[in-house]
Each structure stands twice: as C-alpha cells, then as structure tokens.
Amino acid sequence: MTLAAAAPYGFLSPTGVEVSFLLVGLVTFAAALVTVTTKQLVHAALWLVVALGGLAVEYLLLTAEFIAWVQVLIYVGSVVVLLLFGLMLTKAPIGRSPDADSGNRWAALTVAVAAAATLVWVVVDAFRTQWIDLDAPQGTTAVTGAMLFQHWVLPFEALSVLLLAALVGAIVLSRKADAKADAKADAGTGGAESPADAAGPADKERQR
Amino acid sequence: MHLAYPAVLAVLLFCTGLYGVLARRNAILVLMSVELMLNAVNLNLVAFDVWLRDALHAGQALTLFTIAIAAAEIGIGLSIVLMVYRNRGTSDVDRLRDTAEATGPTGPAGPEDTAPDGAADATDPDATAAAQKAEATA
Amino acid sequence: MTTPTLAVLVPLLPFLGAVAGLLLGRTAPGFVRPLAVLPTVTSAVIAVLIAVRQGGGTGGGIRPVDTATELTPTGSVPIELALHIDGFAVLVAVLVGLVASCVQLYSTGYLRDDPRYPSYAALVSLFTSAMFLVVYSGDLMVLLVGWEVMGICSYFLVGHYWETPEARAASLKAFLVTKLGDVPFLIGLFALAADTGSFRITKVLDAVASGGLDHPTVIALLLLAGVAGKSAQFPLHTWLPDAMAGPTPVSALIHAATMVAAGVYFVARLLPVFAASAAALVVLAVMAAVTMVGSALAALAQDDIKRVLAYSTVGQLGYMTGALAVGDRGAAVFHLLSHGAFKALLFLAAGVIIHAAGTNSLAVMSRMTGLRDRIPDAFWTMTVALLALAAIPPFSGFFSKEAVLGAAEHAATGHAESVPGSAGWIVLVSGLLTAVLTAAYATRLWLLAFRPPVTAPRPAGAPTAAGTVEAPDHGRQPVVMNVVLWVLAVPSLAFGITVGVLPDWFDGRSLTPTLTTSVLATGLTLVGGLVTYGAWRHTTALAARVPMGAVAAHPDAEPALSEAEAIATHTPAYGSIASAPDPADPGRLLLGPLHRHAAAGFRMDAVYSALFVRPTQFLAGVVRFLDREVVDTYVRGAGTLPRWLGAAVRRAQTGNVQTYLSALLAGSLVLAVAAVLVAAGA
User: Fold this and answer.
1) Do C657 and B96 touch (CB under 8 A)?
2) How confident is the model over C200-213, as a mean pLDDT?
3) Farthest CA pair distance, chain A
4) Domain check: are C207 and C299 in the same one?
5) DSSP 3-state assignment of B138?
6) Are residues C494 and C608 in the same domain?
7) Region C177-186: what's the mean pLDDT?
8) Cis status of the peptide bond prior to C235, with omega within 30 of 0
9) Which residues of B touch C668 (CB under 8 A)?
C-alpha cells in the first residue's frame, strides 16, 4: 500500500485547518519545551499556560469545542494558578536559578529522545494514511452534554466522589503538615536535632 | 486533517513532559511536566474520538474525566509537596533520598551526613549546587 | 537360688544402687549412704557365698559354671551374656567385694561432708558393678563393656577434686592413656574372635588348645597393649601416679586393688592365648621387669605418700605380669589377691595419715612428732601392710611373692613347658632386684612417716626441738575408718596360710615357697631394709636443720578436705608434685644421681610429650593453617564476588526517584521496541 494510492489526501497539499494545526502545534511544542527547560521557575508556569492554551486551540481545530473551553477554564484558570501558589508557598526563587535541572538531565534527555523517536516512528507508521473528517462538529456543548448525562452519568458521579475525596485528602494533609510544623518549631528552638533537620544548615537558614 | 498531526504532536508533548519529569529538580516543576503528559494523552483521546466518530464519544468523556482527575491530582500533589517542604525545608526531588542504601547498619540516614560511598560522586555536585541555591534564596 | 542367679545378682545390685543413688542423690540425701553401702556389702556376701559353693576347698573344686544367654542375634560372631565362674573368678570377686565394701564404709567417714558425695558413691558402686561384670563375664565383649565402664568411672573419680588443676589433668591423662591401650585391645579382641569364631572365653580357649589360633603373636601383643594401659605397665604406666590426685578411697579401690588388677586378671583368663606365642611371653617378661625395677626406683624417690604407694602398685602389678610371663597364673592371681588386700589397706591408712598430718609430703611428716600416737590404728595396720608389701615371712605378701619367684625359677631352670627360659630368668632376676628396692622404699616410708627425727632428743617439758613440728590435732579418726583398716589387716596378716588350699581353686600347681628363692629373697629384703635404715640414721640429722612444713589442718572438716588441699598445695610449696627438696630423705642418699630422674618417673612424661604430644600439636597447627589460610581462602573468595556484586548493585540504590524512574522508563522503552520489532518481524 503506497502512500499515494492509499491516501486520497496528500501531505503536500495541506488544508487550511492543517496549516493552522501545524502552526499552533509548533507554538505549543515550543512552549512545552521552554516549560521543561527554563531556569526561571515562574516562567515555567507561565510558559505552561501558553502550552495549555495552545492545546485548547488545537481542540477547537479538532471541533471539540466543549473540551477546549473546559481546558481553558480548568487548566489555565485553576491548575496553573494552583501551581503558582505552590511555587510561592515553597519559596521558589524568583529569577534565574542555576540548578533547576537535576543531575539526571542527560539520562532524562536520552530516555525522552529515544521514547519520542520510537513513538513517532510507530505512530507515523501506523496512522500516516488516516484522515480525520472534520465536516461535522464532533464536540459541541450540546452533544457533549447529551452524551455525558446520558451514557456517562454514573462515572461522572463517581468522579465527583473522587474529587470530594481529593479535597478532603488535601485538607487533611495540609492540617497535619501544620501541626507537625508547629511541633517542630517548638522542638527545634529547644536545640534538639530532629531527623527533619538532616537537610542541612543551609535549609534551616532558608527556613528562617 | 491527517490523523498523524495530532498524534505526532501528542507524542512530542508527552516526551517533553517525560523529560521534565525526569530532569527537573523542583517537585512543582515535576508536577507541571506531569500536566504536560496528561494533556498529550488528552489530545490523543480527542483526536481519535473525532477520527472514529464514536457514537458515545467515549474519548471526549474520558478527556473530561482526565481533566477532573488531573485537577484532583494537582491538588493532592501540591499538598504533599508542601508538607515535604515544611518537614524537610526543601522540595527538591533529588535531595529526598531517605531510601538510599546506607553505608552501615545504622539504618536510613540523611543523604548529606552519610552519603554512600558509591553515591558520593553523584551527590557531591548536587549538594554544592543546593548550597548555592540556598544562598541565592537567602 | 542357683549359682548363676546369684552370680547375676552380684554385678546387678551395685548397678541398681548406683542408678538409685544418682536419681535420689539430690532429692533424698538420707538414702545415699545406705544405697551406697548396702548393695555393695550384699554383693560381697553373695560373692563369698558363690565362692564357698563353687570352690569350697574340696580338692579340685567343682567344674566351672558356664552359662550363657543370647539377647539378640549379632551377626557372624555372637555376643552372649555369658558367665564363666571358676576358682579365679570367685576369689577375685570376693576380693573386689571385700575391698569395695571397705572403701564404701571408709568413704562414709572420709567424705562425710562432701557435697558431691552422692555422685561419688554412685560412681564407686557403678565401678564395683563393672568390675564384678569383668570378673564373672564369660564373653569377651561383655567383659569389654565392664572394662570401659571402669575406665570412665576412673576418669570421673580421679577428677573428684576437679577444683584443683592437678586432678583435672590427672583424670584426662588417665583416660587418654588407658584409651591409648584400649584401641589395640579392641582390635586384638576382634582378631581373636576372627581367628576362633567366638567371643566366649571357653570356646576361645578350646580353639587355642586345638591350635586354631593363626596369629598368636599379633593378637597377644595387641591384647597386651590394653593390659598395659589398664594395669599400668611400662610404657603406659604414667597415668597411675598422677591418678593419686583423686580421693584416697578411690585410689585404694580402683588404682590399687581392683581396676588395675583387671588387666592381670584378663591375661590370667586368656593365658593359653599368650602362652601360644613365646615372643609374647618374652615381651610380657621384659615389660614386667622394666616395670618392676623402674617403678621401685621411682617409688624410692617420691615425696607424696600416695605416689610412693602408686609406684609400689605399679611394681607389684609387675610381679603379677611376671608370673603370667612364666606361665603361672595361679601365682599371679594369688599375688593379685594378697596385694589387693594389703595395698587397699596401705592406701586407706595413708588417707588417715594424710588427714592426721595435714599433708601428703613425707618430708614434712619426717619432721613431725607424735603422729604415731595420734593414729595408733593406722600405725599398726600400716606396719602390717608394709611388712606384707616387703614380703617379710609370716605376712601374706611373702607367700604370694615367693609363689611368683618360685614360678620364675621353675621356668628359668626349664621345668615349665612352652615357657622360654629367658623369660624365667628375666622375671627372676628383676624380681629379686625389686625385692631389695621394695624393702627399701617400704622401710623409708615407714621411717619417714612414723619415726620422729632421732637427733631431737629433748628434755621432758622442753619445747619442740628446732625443725620439728607437732602433728596437728585432728581429734580421733572416724571409727568406721579405723574398723575398715583392721578388717583389711586380717587378710594382709593371715592370707598366707591359705597357700596350701589355694591350688585347689586354681590350676592345681603348688604355690608353696621354694627354699632357694625364699632364702634369697628374704635375705635381699632384709638387706634392703637395713641399708635404708642405715641411710636414714645418717640423713635424719639433717632434718632438724632444714625445716619444712606446710600443713592443712581442719579439725572439724571431713578428712577429704585436708587431702584436697594437700594435693593442691604440694606443687606451690615444694616445686613439684612428686618430690621435695629434702636433704634428709634417705632415698636421696641411696639413689644418688639417679634420684632426680627417679623422682620424675624417669621422664616418661617428657618422652610422651616429645613422641606424641608435640607431633600432635604440630599436626594440629598444620591443620589449623590449612583450614584458616587455604580452605578459608576459597570460602572468603566465594564470599567476595557476591559482595562486590552487592556493592555494585548498592550503588544503584541512590534514593533518587528520578534515577529510578529513568531506568524504569528506559527499560519499558526497550521492551516496547522489542515488542514492536517482534510484531513487525512476525
């Protein structure tokens, strides 16, 4: 099965949607790359916004309209904000930090590039002849609402329970951390060398 | 639209996230990378759902669920990171090495006071880098 | 009851007594003494009863009782519970019963406060039972059982004062040296059974009589090794003097009267086997001669009273083996019986003396006044026993020793068939020489122990002369101990009169002293005694100038305590366990330069050390080297590789999650690629 014979739509004559998808995809990919390589931690979060937003556009291009808005709402609106809060709460340095990458970088690069090469090879080999017909929109809000509350209502409810559990868990974890932190602060001033202080004097200084 | 485009983009995003998970030092950055990986999967799900024209729209439903689960995951993950930070004074993944092989029968110890002789080469530059970072922070 | 039934009871009763004593020793201390004494005394009475029934002095006696029962099939050569009761057996059994009863009675006084008395008494009972078994047994394997039980009892009893290093060393030495003889002994028994097809003594003797023995010399020499070990003959005699570190009653029973006589008794039982080989008889004669003369010389140089007696025992056993070497087992067992009585008496009296004097050193006793008056019973009985030992005419020792010498002369002049004349001459000459020496050391012992220094004539009321000490006051000795001494003094005094009837119990050969040897030996004995007396007169003046004395006085404690302390303090006080630097010792004058070597037992221990101990230690060192440096190297090498691998794997355990995850994902990636390739290839 040759490329030309099997594929009625060639790669050399892209449609407008394809061009848009490619361009936005490039931007998304570049933003993701910056996210995982930048030395500035807050910038990483901001570049993540770009990448996630780019993905939302891709969803729109794939006619999954509702998903796109959910993506923007939840990811860009809440998750990234949560991450930023996390960065602030852990006193992440603002500005360039030279050690944002660990010593595992080269191993990670090797694994990632190898994985990418393998997966791209497999995916291209498998799907190079397949064509997505985008004539009828597939993910309008009406369609999504109908299928979600007709066919997927039970998992949906289960998911709400999961979210509740996560909420409770997060609260419990934070409360415990508070209690422990208070106890440790009391004990730490007494001069006792608790195991948690094994992180070293530099960190203690940073805590102060 | 060719299916290969979203599929390849998903692969690239996934591997980017993979690199971030493996290479980033800060635990929150690791979480960001995990988000990237999840989003790559979401893109795949949506693309294949649209391609297959599934009557039940299982791909899109699953995408929604994944987004919800990712939100829960980020909440739990962040609270864990916060607690670790409060207990240990750091959220650097490669400094949380309590499970490292101890040199003697004294049990697990902090990575810096008893670094195993094998890991000393690997930890020493990191330790100095961490110290520099601490100074920069202060 | 039939004779076999009674004969079974004889070993059984002390055995049951021993078991009961061991079991009840802690819970019911009140029963210990009856359990120790009564079975033994009963056995002795039964033994006398059997002797009366069996021999009876009726002229030729009754035929020996032989009965056997086989408990279980044991393969080609059957092992049976057999009795063989002839004149030898019944008389030796009477001796064993008598001495064992006396010793048990004596021990009740001697060890009256000893915390280990229950186990001690039980072991003595067990020993008595084993000795009876040896005496009555008609099967060589059963005899060997009793033989070995005696050995282990001896080990435990020698080590009774195990708090002292001397006793520990002596018990080990006794055990090891006798085992050294027992191994060839066992092989010899197997060879004998292989040649004759039976362990039964009667069948063995029948086979020997019909010429069924293929290797008589080898078998006889192998058996001789065991006999030499058990009966303390040269060169395996070294354990016996050291065994005197045990309590005195044990020395009297085991190491004077009975166990050491077991070897002689065994040869007497199997004499035809030995007589089948002229070479074995000559070896036996040489062994007896060396033993006799050497031990008599050594006895003359010892300082410890019990070691004197021990060497004397070795020498008297030499007489017995000498009698066997000239083929006269009647004389041998006759001497065994009389010697058993007077030597037991000597030891028991020595126990009294050691207690009364507070020391076991003759050098100290020679400086002591009043010892004779404190213990008149021991003095008189010991005098009798020493006269018997020296073979002065009316006493028992005279008759038995003359029987031996007469047999030797008989053989030397070629009148005994199947006995080489050389063996007779060897025994005769060495026996006469030993008679002189025996008289000498007996006189020395008596003079040093009981005669105060002659140069200490002191006016009445004057304080004790310089260099002498008054014997410590221990009060009266326990009555039971004195009674026992007199009981044993009777056979020592009067056993000789049985010389006319004893041949009926034995082989029928006359045991009456012959004129030539009697005159010769008695004359030599008198010479030895007089020379020693002269030497003592000469040296005793020195005693006052060299004061010595370390006395352990415990007026209220049991006698054994004094002895244990005396043994423990002899080496620190006088530099050696055997001798003391005493210029007043007549033995020193008599022996001259030989004294030093004689005191050390002619350095046999050093020879053994050079021949056996050092090579063994060297080999042990080699083995240790091989084990540690060669074998362990491989073991360590086998351990090192896994350790290195473990260290390498441990390096991977960095605790860094990202490293783990990288490895995990890289691995899954490889697997995925492999899966894809396989799928594509397929």
Assistant:
1) yes
2) 83
3) 80
4) yes
5) coil
6) no
7) 88
8) yes
9) none
Report if residue C597 sits inside a domain.
Answer: no
Whether the CA torsion C51, C104, C489, C252 is positive or negative: it is positive
DSSP class of C82: E
Of C204, C80, C88, C187, give the one whose Cα is nearest residue C143: C80
CB contact under 8 A, B22 and A55: no
Across C601-625, average pLDDT = 86
Domain boundary among C513, C543, C573: C543
Token pair of C204 as six digits = 């063995």
Is C33 part of any domain? yes
Taking the C-alpha atoms of residue A78 and residue B70, their distance in angstroms, rounded to an integer, is 11
Tell me if C590 is assigned to some domain.
Answer: no
Helical H segments across C232-375, by residue range: 239-242, 248-252, 259-269, 271-275, 278-301, 305-325, 329-357, 362-365, 371-374
pLDDT tops 60 at residue C365: yes
Nearest residue in chain B measured CA to CA from A177: B83
Q: Give chain B positions within 8 Å (CB) of C653.
A: 99-101, 116
Which segment of A180-189, C383-392, C583-592 scores lowest on mean pLDDT?
A180-189
At residue C466, the pLDDT reads: 43
How confident is the model over B86-97, as pLDDT tens digits? 888 888 887 888
Q: Which of C543, C558, C584 is the last residue of a domain?
A: C543
Question: What phi, psi does A99 have (nearest 5°)?
Answer: -115, 35
C-alpha distance from B10 to closest chain A C-alpha (Å):
9
Q: Which helix (H) or strand (E) holds C368?
A: strand C368-369
Please tell me if residue C658 touches chain B, with a CB cutoff of 8 Å.
yes
Q: Cα separation of B136 and B129, whole Å?
A: 10
The answer to whether C669 contacts A102, with C-beta atoms less than 8 Å apart, is: no
User: Which member of A104, A108, A111 has the closest CB to residue C669?
Assistant: A111
Torsion of CA A195, A201, A204, A205, to 10 degrees: 180
Identify which has the larger pLDDT, C211 or B72.
Answer: B72
Q: Give kind and range of the element (H or E) at residue C469.
A: strand C469-470
Domain count, chain C: 2
> Cα separation of A92 and B27, whole Å?
11
Instruction: Tell whether C51 and C186 lie within a shared domain.
Output: yes
Residue A24: pLDDT above 90? yes
Q: Which of the other chains make 3 or more beta carbon contacts under 8 angstroms with chain B?
A: A, C
Mean pLDDT over residues A171-192, rounded? 59
- pLDDT tens digits for range C225-260: 888 888 888 888 888 888 888 888 888 888 777 888
Q: Give C111-138 as a DSSP string.
A: TTT-TTHHHHHHHHHHHHHHHHHHHHB-
Q: Which of A108, A118, A122 sits opposite C662 (nearest CB)?
A: A108
List the 59-118 stretch of B: residues with Cβ below 8 A of A: 60-61, 63-65, 67-76, 78-83, 85-95, 109-110, 112-113
Confirm whether C19 is domain-assigned.
Answer: yes
The average confidence (pLDDT) of chain B is 77
CB contact under 8 A, A104 and C665: no
Which pTM does this prediction carry? 0.65
pLDDT at A198 over 60: no
Burial class of C17 by CB neighbour count within 10 A (0 to 12, 13 to 18, 19+): buried
Helix axes C421-450, C515-543, angle to 10 degrees: 30
Domain boundaries, chain B: 4-137
What average pLDDT does this structure show over C70-90?
A: 80
| pLDDT above 70 (res A8) | no
Residue B20 touches partner A, C-beta closer than 8 Å: yes
Domain that holds residue C664: 603-681
CATH of domain B4-137: 1.10.287.3510
- CA dist A205 and C196 (Å) reads 100
Predicted confidence (pLDDT) at residue B42 exceeds the cutoff of 90: yes
- In terms of pLDDT, which residue wins out, B104 or C427? C427
Which run of H or E residues covers position C83? strand C81-85
**Averaged pLDDT, C75-101:** 84
Q: B62 to chain C nearest CA, in Å? A: 25
